[in-house]
TrEMBL record:
Gene Ontology molecular function terms on file: DNA binding; DNA-binding transcription factor activity
Keywords: DNA-binding, Transcription, Transcription regulation
InterPro entries given in the database record: LysR-type_TF (IPR050389), LysR_HTH_N (IPR000847), LysR_subst-bd (IPR005119), WH-like_DNA-bd_sf (IPR036388), WH_DNA-bd_sf (IPR036390), YidZ_PBP2 (IPR037402)
PROSITE patterns: HTH_LYSR
Name by which UniProt lists this protein: LysR family transcriptional regulator
Family, per entry: Belongs to the LysR transcriptional regulatory family.
Pfam families per the UniProt record, alphabetical: HTH_1 (PF00126), LysR_substrate (PF03466)
Organism: Rhodanobacter fulvus Jip2
First and last residue of the signal peptide: none
Annotated ranges, domain HTH lysR-type: 1-65
CDD domains per the UniProt record, alphabetical: PBP2_Nitroaromatics_like (cd08417)
Length: 300
């Protein structure tokens, strides 16, 4: 093998191919067409004199050849070293162009992402923000691969392997139609139909656990995927929803908001990132900008 023929773009493609073990998924991660990815794989096979990836016997994805297995670890380490060397250069948000991927649901978006995005739009015209729904089970691996830069949301959902910083504390309130005249007490709360936020469609949550300890029960009549959907639903019906205070303050339409008629612990919002990004200048700027926005522009 002649290293003079080495192509960094091909090596980056090989790293993703070995990770995904699937041509189409690798192409999607690299924003390439499937045909372009297949062409790169053909060049890699020629260069290494090895098939590298073979069709799986079950017809799903591909399997690595022994040569590819031996390459995977050293190749990832070499590319990471090169990436760290490049990232060591100074970062200037006024002139740099980079896309940050932030995982946050619509509740965290309202409380945390929106003020950050406003600052980025003002101060960093070349920076783009990609906001996606969090996949909690796969968050740490996706951050390790570089697919996600920052998680914003409930601190209890942060994996132990990630770095995190607590941002603010919030509590829950009862939201309902703005002209609902009934005073909010336990009887009203448990008699009304409830809208529950559950992307997985589950009909119980920590609210129901807290009620059970008080020998009380509510009726969850509907589950929705987002906090915004829940707020919209209760705004035009007799249903109620238990929603975070910070989210409710951000809404652009009126709701009647009352304290819960029972005690429930407050919860913390956090930001989390992979330890490998701890000293990356661009990533550090993003975290500091978020903190500055939360603390009225002061350094935190």
């Amino acid at each position: 093998m002649d290293m003079k023929r080495a192509d960094i773009g091909l090596l980056l493609s090989l790293d993703v191919l070995l990770d995904e073990r699937h041509v189409s998924r690798a192409a999607n991660r690299l924003n390439l067409s499937q045909s372009a990815m297949s062409s790169q794989l053909a060049r890699l096979r020629e260069w290494f004199g090895d098939p590298l990836l073979m069709p799986s016997g079950n017809g799903r994805g591909m399997v690595l050849t022994p040569r590819a297995e031996a390459l995977q670890g050293p190749l990832r380490a070499a590319l990471q070293t090169l990436n760290d060397a490049i990232a060591a250069n100074a970062f200037d948000p006024r002139h740099d162009a980079r896309t940050f991927t932030i995982a946050a649901n619509d509740n965290a978006f309202s409380a945390l992402v929106r003020p950050l995005a406003q600052a980025v739009l003002r101060e960093a015209p070349g920076i783009r923000l990609r906001c996606i729904a969090p996949d909690y089970a796969d968050m740490a691996p996706r951050m390790e691969r570089g697919d996600v830069d920052l998680y914003l949301g409930a601190a209890r959902m942060v994996a132990p392997s990630l770095k995190q910083r607590l941002l603010l504390r919030d509590d829950f309130r009862v939201a309902r139609r703005h002209d609902d005249p009934a005073p909010m007490d336990m009887a009203v709360y448990t008699s009304r139909p409830h809208v529950l936020i559950s992307p997985a469609g589950q009909f119980s949550s920590i609210i129901d656990d807290a009620l059970a300890k008080l020998q009380q029960k509510r009726r969850v009549a509907m589950t929705v995927a987002t906090y915004t959907q829940a707020a919209s639903m209760v705004a035009s019906s007799d249903a109620v929803a238990t929603l975070p205070s910070a989210f409710l303050r951000s809404l652009g339409f009126p709701l009647r908001i009352d304290p819960l008629p029972f005690a429930l612990d407050a919860f913390d919002y956090a930001m989390a990132w992979h330890p490998r990004m701890q000293d990356d200048p661009a990533h550090r700027w993003l975290r500091e900008r978020l903190l500055a926005g939360l603390h009225d522009g002061s350094d935190a």
